[in-house]
Input
Amino acid sequence: MFRVRRTGVVAAVLCAAVAGSPGSTQAQENTAGTAQSAGHASAAAVRGPLPAGWSVTGGGAARQLVWRSDRPVPVTDSGVAFYAGDRFLGRPVGAPDGRSFRLALGPAPLGKPSDLQARTGERRLDAAGGEQNRPAGQRPGLTAQPSTRLPANAVDPGKPGTYRTATGDYALAPVRLPGFPQPVEMRAVVVAPTDAPGHRPLALFLHGRHATCYTGRGDETGGEWPCPAGAKPIPSYRGYLADQKLLASQGYVTVSVAANGVNGQDYAAEDGGAQARSSLVRQHLARWADWSAHPAAAPAIVRRTAVADLSRVLLVGHSRGGEGVNRAAMDSLYRAPADQDGYRGPVRWHIRGTVLIGPTVFGQNPTPDVPSATILPGCDGDVSDLQGEMYADATRGVSRGAALHSAVYLVGADHNFFNSEWTPGQAEAPAEDDFWSGDRPDRVCSPGAATRLTARQQQTAGATYIAAAARLFVAGDDRVRPLLDGSGRRAPSAGPARVLTHAVGAHRTPAFLPDGPVSTTGGRLCEEVDDDTAEACLGTGTNGVSPHFARWETSAEPGRRAVALRWTASGSRVRVGAAGPVSIAGSEALALRLIVPPNTRDNRLDIALADASGHRATLGRVHLDGLPGTSRTASYWGQEVRLPLAAATRAGVDLHRVTALEIVPRTPSGQAWLIDSWGWRPGTPVVRAAALSRVDLGRLIVKEGDAGVRSYRVPVRVTGHGSGTVRLFVVDPDTGRTASREVSVRPGGTGPEVRVEVRGNTRFGYDVSHDVFVKAVHGAVIGAHRGGVTALNDDPVPTLKVTPAAARAAEGRPLTWRMSLSSAADADIQADLAVLPSTGGAELSTTDVDPRWLRQNSGEEPLPSRPLSQVRGLFLFAEVPAGRTSTEITVPTLADAVTEPEETVRLRATFSDGSGATHDGPEFTGTVYDPA
Output
């Protein structure tokens, strides 16, 4: 394939310098290029080799990092992410073949070439990593259970109900969704009670992103849609039957819908397919609304079972399905732009809550006024950063705060096993444990570890907490709230699983939130997301990551802070002060979410409050054990602790005018992080959706033109009701820097103005993306969180030809050809070179070429001697740097004392026309002869 590389010097890129233009538009010649591995840039461009499969293309605004796998990458929910060591670079765009991934970098530094990694979750994908994982980072003190087990809750929602149930599928005509060329199936499995009276609440399940098709031949799966001949769809939608049967026995109508048609086409969707999944969910809900009104028109399984009550709907989504049902809840309250939405009918349902299982949230854009419970699997090897924590954290301050948003940390659970069709031994199609142990077992998460749950244990615990959310959000039974809101109760039905919860919202009153105007003495206000380790909450030396500090689109993100505590003596006081007095009057307790390092024991902290008049009271002491964790888990998670406010009242502290929170460690040394603190009282308030603005970004696609500078406005649509505040992030593609600002939005206006400039030229180059992101601050929700302007290259790819330079050479001398372009380009032009079998006579063999060249380009050894066309993994390419018109291709040969006939090597260049289509290019040969 003919790859394209923008102007710039890769060596400068990898040494963290900004790549520059070559400075000349005159055609120049370069003689440094050689035929070499596709995993290595040219000798002139790099001081050290890139890892196999990697290349850096271009410079400046159009600089890109490209990785190509030698086999299709598994379909996962987290997708592929690029890293430089442990520094997150971004999520690349995948090609339809599932092998090639391309990330726009601009001039952002990469660090050492050897640090480059392609990962999905915690699994290393690129050849340099093989099937190795990061070191387990084991530490002492790992236990499945803390020193004291949580008391049982008064009500156990995991007990089956008394209703009889029936199970059956329905299949309707497929639907068309915007941006997807193929229609998406409308298939589902229903489990519902047959003897429950009246209209029953509806629970809809949506699975996540997984392989779509399988053949039945070994472990062969694929991500195509529709499935090719000889392959069958993987029935992911049937993976929640146990959850459905539990709910159905308790009186719920349940339906689990298929989404293979989305999974097979979302690789290029800017939002990862969230809007498409929302459209699919609402298409099904619309059918259920029809059937509830006209039962005779319903499929057989729907007619046989209880009638669904669409005013009481629970949505349950797994992985990207979680992001999909969150968007469906949002779209049901605040309409999506019509050109992006695949459902445009009336909303005839009321979503009472969502359950999100190991979810993605690429936009970090939860629906604040719909209650949620997010299950965070402690051994998630796919969405391994547990970014679903943002469904709680990112709701703070956005709306009224009445909706309960719970996070349920399930120690020892992996990502896949919540779906039985993704579980080995239960699935119809090939399946695997997503926590990949490789050759380096993990003390917490490898199968057999004391902290690791079996598939059945995990599924039972998951079903119990889904039922808990249904009972609280839909049935309104406040007795199950302590299982979800950080009250420290367990559900006996969850068996041996260790489950911890915390929450925001409901009857919580903001006290000290580090995101807001607070100060600290004795501690440090740290940035949750920042590449500067001196500013970041988790700097160097930490063992794992925190779900609270999950990265978004930018390397630094204002408005996300915590308080970091580090002490070396007992009694070292940390004081957090508010900008003005805060009121927690009417609360029963002070609730704090505190992180302590994984695997630590008995972290003791005294908690005190002070008021504006100087009154102070110690509320009590908390004891915290760290969660089990290694460097491969997201175990820096905030545990909720509560201290009654009675001591403050007795000491005369004015709870209307609290000014400071004090945390006093009572252990000799340690660390902790304060996420936030709240006044708390029990109960679950009625939630009414506020009148919020909705903001959706769009992407404008323009041609760069031949000359001049044109200004374009980024599409920003504001709908909904009321005014709000959002934070806009604008990336400069020339410098890579991101500027952010808060702006007010109101429906009916033109929205905030973001303009970008596009410069025209007449030379071929890459498309340039001017990216913009948006996040809610207050009074707004975000649909499409990213957009911008993409300037398309509108100049043709130069034509390529290869001519002999020294295509006939004595052994020991290099074979040389010149690859020339019809005109210079603003991109590095690269061609893959395939070695073809000789059409006549002897073929150049592995023992006829420089062994270092052979190893560099294939990883193979010369012996046993074999023709070059038979060498496995021999990948060559040639490159013409931007601004130049030619390069040399060389194959170094080896002299020997053996008398041999003339030997030939036959090569073919493969190139692309710039549109993604590949073409066979020139074919050329070289001949080596014995010297006279």
The radius of gyration is 30 Å. Residues 1-48, 129-141 have pLDDT under 50 and may be disordered. The first strand starts at residue 2 and ends at 6. DSSP finds ten helices and 51 strands in the chain.
